[in-house]
C-alpha cells in the first residue's frame, strides 16, 4: 500500500510559547504587543486552560476573594475580564472563550496554532532549537523554531523534553526550613478535578445513575459540603484557620448548584501525569456518584432544593493543580511568601493563601479537602524563578515555575499565573530586543518592571520612574477635587488605590458641564501617545464564574467608576491643535496613539462615567513616541 505524502510545515519566530492557558495567552499577547514575532502552540480548541469553558475554574488571585481587593491583578488579565464584563452579562463561558479567541486573533505579531500538540523538541547543546508538533485537525506536522521558548504547559512538558531540571512532590522541612513542609520528602501532590454544574427548575427532576458511577455514603462526604444544610454543621476544627476556611473556601464555592472543586484525585503512582486518563475515568465515576448521592440517597430526601435540581454540565477534561516544577536560578519558598518578600528583580506578585489540598483528594474522607494558611498582604516573585537554570533559552509561565511545593500552593492560582505569564512575555520580548538569553536579561530587568507598570500592571514596592514619561515633568490642575485626591497625586507613580490612599485625582462630583483635568508643560512638547489609568473599584469582582455566590458579588455591566465618554484636547499657545474623542469606554487602561503634536497643555474633559458621581484618574502618562503596550486605539 502506498504511503500518502506527509503534510509538513516549518516556521520561524522570535518567541514561541507552548501552552494556551491564561499564563500562555497573556505571555503571547505581551510578547507580540512589544514587537516580538510570537507563536502560541495550544493543544486545545479553546484558549484559557483551566479558566476555559472546558474546565471552568474561575480566576482567583491576590485579592483572596475580595478579602484584600486593592491587590487584584491588572494588566492583560484585567483587560480581558473587562472586555468580557462589557459583553457577557450572563456569565456564559462560550462568550468568554470568544473574548480570548478574539484577543489572540486580532493581535499583530501573533500566530496561534490551535489543536496542536507538541510531541518533541530539538536541542543544540543546552539550547532548544525547535519544537515538533502535530495539528490533529489538519494532519499537519510542524517544525517551529525560535530564539526564546516559553513553557506554559502547566506540566513543564517542554522543559521535560528539553532535559530541564525539575522537581515533583514535597521537599522536606530541612531543605528550605518552611514551617508547613513535611518532615520528610514525599510524593504527595494536589490532584485533578472535574467540575460540574446544576440548574434549579420549578419542578422535580429525576436522575438515572450511570452504571459506572461510584456510590457514596454520607460518611464518605462528611468533610465536604454537598447540600445546603451542611454549611453550618461541617466540622472544620482541623483547619489552620477554621472560620476563615469556612468563609472563603467552602461556603463561597460549594453550594449544591455549583461545584465541586473537591471532586479531586491524585492517582496512585509517583508521577501524576501518566495517570491522567485513568484519573479522568475515576473522576467521572465520582462526579456522577456525587450527583447520585445528592439526588437519590435517602439521607437527602429532606433536601427539597436538590429535588428540583437538574444536572446541566459535567466537565470531561480534568483541571490539574500540580505536577512538575521546573528549576530556575531561584526557588521561591513559603518563607518568601509569609515574609512578604520584595525582590529586587521582582516581575510578579501573589497574595493567595498557602492552599494545600488533601494528598489523596476525595479519598481522604477524614480530612478537609484543603488546608488554607491565610495571611494578609502580598509577596513578589523574582525573575530568576521564571527561566531554566540549565536550558539556556527556556522560560516558564504558570504553575510550573521554580517554586517549592509549599510556595507553589499559592503561586498556582490562576490570577498569579496570568500576570506572571504577561511578565514573562515582556521579558522574552526584551531578550529579543537586547539579543540575550533569559539569564542575560538580568541587567535590563528594570525595563521589564517598568513595562509591567506602563501596561497597567502592579508590582508591590515599585513605582513609575520611566524617564520617557513626559507627564513626570508636568504640572497638574483640575476643575475640582476631593480632599486627599488632589491632581498632583497623579505623579506619585502608583496607579491604584492602596489602603486609605487613593493615589489619584477624584473630582468633587460631576457637573453638567463635566470635569477637567489639565496637564501643563513649561515649554512646547511633542506628544504622540497618552495613557490613562482609570478607576474600576477592585472590591467588585468581574470574573466569569459558575458560582451563584461569586456572581452575586458582582455588579451588572462594566464598573460604574470607569470614564465612559471623554475628550482630550492638545493645546498650544491657547489654541487647540488636536481633539481626541473617546465614546463608551469600558477599559481601565486607555492608550491613545496619534500623529505627533506640539503642545504645551493637555486637557482631559470628562463628560460621563458609567454611573459614578465622580470622575477618577489614577495615572496620566505622555510620550513623544508611540510605545507598545495595551489594546491600542489609533486616532
Provide a descriptive summary of the structure in words.
The protein has 635 residues and is an alpha+beta fold. It has three domains: 290 residues, FAD/NAD(P)-binding domain (3-Layer(bba) Sandwich), CATH 3.50.50; 129 residues, no CATH class; 165 residues, Galactose-binding domain-like (Jelly Rolls), CATH 2.60.120.260. 21% of the residues lie in helices and 26% in strands. It is built from 13 helices and 29 strands. Helix 1 packs parallel to helix 11, helix 2 packs across helix 3 and helix 11 crosses helix 12. It starts with 7 loop residues before the first strand and ends with a strand. About 1% of the residues have low confidence.
What's the number of extended β-strand segments?
Answer: 29
> Which stretches are low in confidence, meaning pLDDT under 50 for 5 or more residues running?
249-255
Any idea what the CATH superfamily of the largest domain is called?
Answer: FAD/NAD(P)-binding domain
CATH topology value of the largest domain: FAD/NAD(P)-binding domain
Number of helices: 13
| Shape label | globular
In the residues, how many domains can be counted? 3
CATH architecture of the largest domain: 3-Layer(bba) Sandwich
Amino acid at each position: 500500500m502506498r504511503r500518502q505524502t506527509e503534510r509538513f510545515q516549518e516556521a520561524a519566530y522570535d518567541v514561541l510559547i507552548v501552552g494556551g492557558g491564561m499564563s500562555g495567552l497573556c505571555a503571547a499577547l505581551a510578547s507580540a504587543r512589544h514587537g516580538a514575532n510570537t507563536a502560541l502552540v495550544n493543544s486545545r480548541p479553546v484558549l484559557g486552560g483551566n479558566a476555559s469553558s472546558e474546565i471552568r475554574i474561575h480566576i482567583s488571585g491576590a485579592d483572596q476573594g475580595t478579602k484584600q481587593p486593592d491587590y487584584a491583578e491588572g494588566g492583560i488579565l484585567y483587560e480581558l475580564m473587562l472586555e468580557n464584563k462589557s459583553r457577557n452579562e450572563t456569565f456564559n463561558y462560550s462568550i468568554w472563550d470568544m473574548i480570548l479567541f478574539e484577543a489572540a486573533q486580532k493581535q499583530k505579531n501573533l500566530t496561534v496554532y490551535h489543536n496542536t500538540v507538541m510531541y518533541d523538541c530539538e536541542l543544540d547543546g543546552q539550547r532548544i532549537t525547535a519544537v515538533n508538533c502535530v495539528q490533529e485537525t489538519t494532519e499537519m506536522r510542524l517544525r517551529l523554531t525560535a530564539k526564546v521558548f516559553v513553557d506554559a504547559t502547566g506540566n513543564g512538558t517542554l522543559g521535560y523534553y528539553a532535559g530541564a531540571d525539575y522537581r515533583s512532590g514535597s521537599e522536606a522541612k530541612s531543605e528550605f526550613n518552611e514551617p508547613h513542609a513535611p518532615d520528610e520528602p514525599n510524593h504527595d501532590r494536589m490532584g485533578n478535578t472535574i467540575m460540574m454544574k446544576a440548574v434549579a427548575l420549578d419542578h422535580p427532576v429525576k436522575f438515572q445513575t450511570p452504571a459506572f458511577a461510584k456510590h457514596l455514603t454520607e460518611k464518605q462526604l462528611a468533610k465536604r459540603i454537598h447540600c445546603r444544610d451542611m454549611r453550618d454543621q461541617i466540622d472544620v476544627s482541623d483547619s489552620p484557620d477554621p472560620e476563615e476556611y469556612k468563609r472563603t473556601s467552602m461556603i463561597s464555592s460549594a453550594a449544591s448548584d455549583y461545584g465541586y472543586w473537591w471532586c479531586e484525585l491524585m492517582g496512585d503512582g509517583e508521577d501524576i501525569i501518566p495517570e491522567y486518563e485513568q484519573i479522568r475515568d475515576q473522576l467521572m465515576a465520582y462526579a456522577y456518584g456525587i450527583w447520585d448521592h445528592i439526588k437519590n440517597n435517602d439521607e437527602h430526601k429532606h433536601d427539597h432544593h436538590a429535588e428540583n435540581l437538574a444536572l446541566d454540565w459535567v466537565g470531561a477534561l480534568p483541571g490539574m493543580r500540580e505536577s512538575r516544577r521546573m528549576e530556575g536560578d531561584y526557588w521561591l519558598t513559603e518563607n518568601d511568601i509569609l515574609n512578604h518578600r520584595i525582590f529586587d528583580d521582582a516581575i510578579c506578585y501573589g497574595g493567595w493563601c498557602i492552599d494545600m489540598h488533601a494528598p489523596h483528594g476525595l479519598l481522604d474522607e477524614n480530612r478537609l479537602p484543603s488546608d488554607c494558611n491565610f495571611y494578609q498582604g502580598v509577596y513578589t516573585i523574582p525573575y530568576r524563578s521564571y527561566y531554566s537554570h540549565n536550558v539556556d533559552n527556556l522560560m516558564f509561565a504558570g504553575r510550573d515555575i521554580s517554586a517549592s511545593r509549599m510556595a507553589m500552593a499559592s503561586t498556582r492560582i490562576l490570577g498569579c499565573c496570568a500576570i506572571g505569564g504577561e511578565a514573562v512575555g515582556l521579558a522574552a520580548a526584551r531578550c529579543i530586543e537586547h539579543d540575550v538569553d533569559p539569564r542575560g536579561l538580568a541587567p535590563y530587568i528594570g525595563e521589564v518592571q517598568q513595562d509591567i507598570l506602563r501596561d497597567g500592571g502592579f508590582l508591590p514596592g515599585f513605582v513609575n520612574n520611566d524617564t520617557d514619561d513626559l507627564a513626570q515633568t508636568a504640572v497638574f490642575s483640575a476643575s475640582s477635587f476631593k480632599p486627599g485626591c488632589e491632581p498632583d497625586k497623579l505623579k506619585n507613580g502608583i496607579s491604584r488605590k492602596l489602603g486609605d490612599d487613593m493615589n489619584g485625582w477624584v473630582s468633587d462630583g460631576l457637573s453638567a458641564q463635566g470635569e477637567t483635568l489639565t496637564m501643563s508643560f513649561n515649554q512646547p512638547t511633542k506628544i504622540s501617545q497618552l495613557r490613562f489609568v482609570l478607576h474600576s473599584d477592585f472590591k467588585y469582582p468581574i470574573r466569569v464564574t459558575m458560582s451563584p455566590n461569586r456572581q452575586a458579588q458582582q455588579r451588572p455591566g462594566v464598573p460604574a467608576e470607569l470614564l465612559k465618554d471623554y475628550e482630550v484636547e492638545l493645546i498650544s499657545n491657547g489654541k487647540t491643535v488636536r481633539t481626541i474623542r473617546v465614546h463608551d469606554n469600558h477599559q481601565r487602561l486607555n492608550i491613545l496613539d496619534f500623529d505627533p503634536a506640539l503642545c504645551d497643555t493637555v486637557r482631559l474633559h470628562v463628560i460621563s462615567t458609567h454611573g459614578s458621581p465622580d470622575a477618577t484618574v489614577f495615572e496620566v502618562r505622555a510620550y513623544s513616541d508611540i510605545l507598545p503596550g495595551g489594546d491600542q486605539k489609533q486616532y
